[in-house]
Structure formats: structure tokens, C-alpha cells
Design brief:
The chain has 224 residues and is of the alpha/beta class. Helices cover 42% and strands 23% of the residues. It contains 8 helices and 7 strands. The protein starts with 9 loop residues before the first helix and ends with a strand.
Length: 224
Amino acid sequence: MRDNASSYNSFEYDSKINMTLPYYEEFHRQVIDVIRALNFNKLKWLDTGCGTGKTARKVLEELVETDIDFTLCDISNEMLNIARDILGDNGITYRNISSQALDYSEQFDVVTAIQCHHYLSRAERKTAIENCYNALKENGIFITFENIRLENDKADLLAVKRWKNYMISNGKTEREVEEHAERRGKAVFPITVAEHLDLLKNSGFQCAELLWFSYMQAGFFAIK
């Protein structure tokens, strides 16, 4: 039995995710590039659905010139324990809580949610995004990367085939690939780029834009 909502148990997540998601490392590079462009000297950062703390690790490695106060939240205690073992407790707050249960109000300059909200129903996703919005200070920025569904069924089918080929080329078996594909609509519930943007705008953000797109993943940023 898995100890989180992803396809992998916590202890193997970091070693297996690149076999499944094309350009996974690029997600973090894009996040860092956006925040670097904003020229923060000091900031408070909430990473919800933090998993093993990969985003925080990459940020702390790259943005050494910035004083960052991190809060890491995840529904999986196992994931949080791994994050704490790697990052330690110095200057980092850990909370065993989901995005749907976040209770912050105007406390953070940055909120990130990387590959965590596509496990939610539409109603749960709406609550999660609204909570991320509420957690931000005025003019704070929200950045999210998620699995997506393409607008057209034929285009979506082609994207799935490309994704399967990627996984095969990275060492997964045919059975593993099919198991991943079968999770769509059952364990993960991707929505389209347009639906993502509408959700962000309807949650109150003054602007919401597509940041990055490839295969069946996309990144978005929104400013409160």
C-alpha cells in the first residue's frame, strides 16, 4: 500500500519521478527563475503538497542571496519526515496538512503547489486554490505545476501516447506504463489549461498566466 497519493512510496519518489514526468527538473528551474526576477531580499514561502521537500531544496541551493522563511505542508507524514531529514528544522516549519485545509491569511509572499492538486476533485481543487490565494499577501505570487488534459480528445490521446513512449524509453515496463495511464480519471483528475486559468481568475487573482507547457504538464503563475 502506498503512503501518499502519488504512484510511488515516499522513499522511492525522488528516484522514480523523472522516469514518469518529462522535464520534471524544469518545473523547479521555472519556479526559481520567476522568483529571482522578482528581486526579493527576504520572503516567506509556503510550499503546499511539498512531498520530500524537492522544491525547497532546489530553491535554497539556488537563491542563496535571499533570506527565505519556508513553511512546508503535506498530507503525507512519510513525505514530511523525509523532507525534515534532508532539510532539518532550522528556519523551516513543517505541517501535516492538505491544501484543502490550509488556514493561513495574508502571510506569504510566495505559495507553490507542484504536482499535488491533480489528485483532487473539482470542488476540492477549488477550495485548495482559494486557500492558496488567502495565504498570500497582497501582490504575492502563486506558482503551480500540474498534470493537464488537452482540449481535444484526439490531441489528448496523442499526448498520452507520447507520454507512454517517454516512460518506456526511461526504463518502465509496458505494464507499469499502462498502470500509470489508467490512473487518469480514477486517481488523478487533470483539467485543461483554460480551466486552470479560469479557476485562478475566479479565485480572485488579479492576473493568471500560463508559465510553461510540455507533453501533459503545465505551469501557471498568478498574482494576488
